[in-house]
Design goal:
The structure holds 2 protein chains of 2 kinds. Chain A is mainly α. Chain A has helices spanning about 1-45, 45-50, 65-75, 75-110, 115-125, 130-140, 150-155, 160-170, 175-185, 190-200, 200-215, 220-225, 235-245, 250-270, 275-285. In chain B, strands 1-2 form a two-stranded antiparallel sheet. Chain B has a domain at about 65-110 and about 155-295: MetI-like fold. The chains are: A mainly alpha, B mainly alpha.
């Protein structure tokens, strides 16, 4: 009798707690999703309809794709897009080559001064970007590389943290494999390409995705180094659109541009969700 | 097996070149710049060596405004975002149904372009001649407003900036805290349940101490990240942050370097070094405090 009462009370309390928890979680989910909903919604409202809404409407009955057409024709959104893709691909590719070579050197080869060099590398992780950006700006300007892809890419390539991450992963591969390969007369380079890279593929994919996200969203450096629209990336592109494009009032067209810019990364995220979240948990720093 | 294989340096060479040119050299150079008085970027000459640049920056009203904004932003967003993230993570780890869905949704802001989504926030909060905006619609349900959050009073603008900053940093914190909570040994909870310990007591006596290193890591990175705030502000208020009274220290550095107010790498360097000194001090204080409260 008593026992039943206690159990019933406990069940009620659990249910109450659950309701509170789900309410809280759903509330935050709405907070996160609402801006995305709003941007898609606004992008399919027509210019006239949007501007006649004194009270913002939470839905639309007359969706239009006109704004997307405007986004690609009235402002060079396509150009920003191509620039960003080129910048992202080139930066990520060079980063991968540099990182893999350095990680291999640190993890596999024996040479004088290696450990000292590695310690110095690690200490570079603590240097904030804001300190070095000033001189880089002057360097690139003096080299006449403003408004060029070289100027955009070169300073964005290196990432000490990724070298560290990959080196740790490389170091886990048993030495015996290396000795066996050496006995067979395999060169270091061939060993790296045929054995180490395939084994560490998951880590390499993770750092590639993280770098792609970083490149796609980079704003400060592209803003400093480009003032010619022909070299804008999507971040400064959207800022340019906001300040000069479309005329200030065409918010639906702006939102269409925002949707177009946001979609590639969201798709990438939905495909590689597990990998991205694990990678960020391991070494993301935004926040 | 060769003991000393100098070819190893060959593999490091590309990384060393990049890091040398774009990180080590600039790091030294920024200190030199900050000490060169009256540097002219066109002729690359300067008058003398001294601390004038620091004095100038410290007396510049724009820098003081940026300093004030940044401190307010840090003091509000770091505790709030960490607290809310903790609340949400605890909630997340107590449910089983729909958990993955919630986790995926919460992570979305991490992969979106800060500038692009900032524009959406601006539109939600902005008051224009055509509409009061969505935020004011909600305020009107409670009989308040309308307030222009983007071009209006200082605290309204600061509220939006803090709100957006928290929205942006939340995914990282939730992710890290959920994985920390998942790694707490279940035996502790089982033991507590056998003893009939209350939920609250279990939380303060087991969960919090067990995740305190993670919590502390988030607070430190949160402080560092918030001190470097910049693109969030640009996304909301446009590139001319001084006019909007919403500049941050990093924004001040870039304004000194570039654009209509730019061309002063010496002032920019001095401001950047001041920022670095502030961040370093705060981090050291954090480390000292943590020695008392963090259980490793």
């Amino acid at each position: 009798m008593d026992y039943e009462k206690i159990e019933k009370g406990a069940r009620l309390r659990t249910r109450a707690v659950n309701i509170v928890v789900y309410t809280l979680l759903t509330f935050w989910a709405i907070m996160v999703l609402f801006p995305f909903y709003w941007m898609v919604l606004t992008s399919i409202k027509s210019y006239g309809a949007y501007n006649s809404e004194w009270i913002p409407q939470l839905y639309t009955l007359a969706p239009t794709l006109q704004n997307y057409a405007d986004a690609f024709t009235a402002v060079p959104l396509g150009g920003y897009f191509v620039n960003t893709i080129l910048f992202t691909l080139a930066t990520t590719a060079i980063m991968l080559v540099v990182t893999i070579l350095a990680a291999f050197g640190f993890a596999r080869l024996q040479f004088k001064g290696r450990d000292l060099a590695f310690t110095l590398f690690l200490s570079l992780m603590m240097i904030p970007n804001e300190l070095v950006v000033i001189t880089n700006y002057v360097t690139i300007t003096n080299l006449d590389m403003r408004n060029t892809f070289m100027g955009l890419i070169l300073p964005s390539v290196t990432s000490v943290f990724y070298i560290y991450l990959l080196k740790e992963n490389f170091a886990q591969i048993p030495d015996e494999l290396y000795y066996a390969a050496k006995v067979d007369g395999t060169s270091d380079m061939k060993y790296l390409l045929k054995v180490m890279i395939p084994i560490c593929k998951p880590t390499i994919i993770t750092i590639t995705i993280l770098k792609v996200i970083e490149c796609w969203n980079s704003y400060v450096w592209p803003r400093l180094i480009t003032d010619d629209q022909a070299y804008f990336l999507v971040s400064n592109g959207i800022q340019e659109i906001r300040e000069n494009g479309f005329g200030r009032e065409n918010i639906p067209a702006m939102m269409a541009a925002v949707v177009v810019i946001s979609v590639p990364l969201i798709v990438l995220f939905l495909i590689f969700r597990k990998k991205i979240m694990a990678g960020v948990a391991q070494g993301g720093t935004k926040g | 097996m060769e003991r000393n294989n100098p070819k190893g340096w060959l593999y490091l060479l590309p990384a060393m070149l990049f890091l040398g040119v774009f990180m080590v050299y600039p790091l030294i150079d920024v200190f030199i710049y900050s000490l060169e008085e009256g540097y002219n970027s066109a002729s690359q000459t300067y008058f003398g060596v001294g601390l004038y640049n620091y004095a100038y920056v410290l007396h510049d009203p724009y820098f003081l405004q940026a300093l004030k904004n940044t401190f307010i932003l840090v003091v509000i967003t770091v505790p709030l975002s960490t607290g809310i993230a903790l609340l949400i993570s605890v909630g997340l780890s107590s449910i089983r149904k729909l958990r993955e869905l919630y986790q995926t949704i919460y992570f979305l802001p991490y992969v979106t372009n800060t500038l692009a989504v900032g524009l959406v926030f601006m539109i939600l909060f902005k008051q224009t001649p055509y509409t009061d905006g969505f935020a004011n619609l909600i305020l009107s349900w409670f009989g308040a407003g309308p307030i222009d959050f983007i071009g209006g009073p200082y605290w309204a603008k600061m509220f939006v900036l803090c709100f957006y900053t928290i929205w942006v940093v939340m995914p990282f914190k939730i992710l890290i805290l959920t994985s920390a909570l998942a790694s707490v040994d279940q035996t502790y909870y089982n033991a507590a349940r056998v003893d009939g310990t209350s939920r609250l007591r279990t939380f303060t006596k087991i969960t919090l101490p067990m995740i305190s290193p993670t919590l502390f890591y988030l607070i430190i990175t949160g402080f560092i990240g918030a001190f470097k705030a910049y693109s969030d502000a640009v996304a909301l208020f446009g590139t001319d942050l001084n006019a909007a009274e919403m500049n941050t220290i990093v924004g001040y550095v870039y304004d000194m370097l570039y654009g209509s107010s730019g061309g002063y790498p010496s002032y920019a360097s001095a401001a950047a070094i001041l920022l670095f000194a502030i961040v370093l001090t705060i981090t050291c204080i954090n480390l000292l405090v943590s020695k008392k409260h963090v259980h490793y």
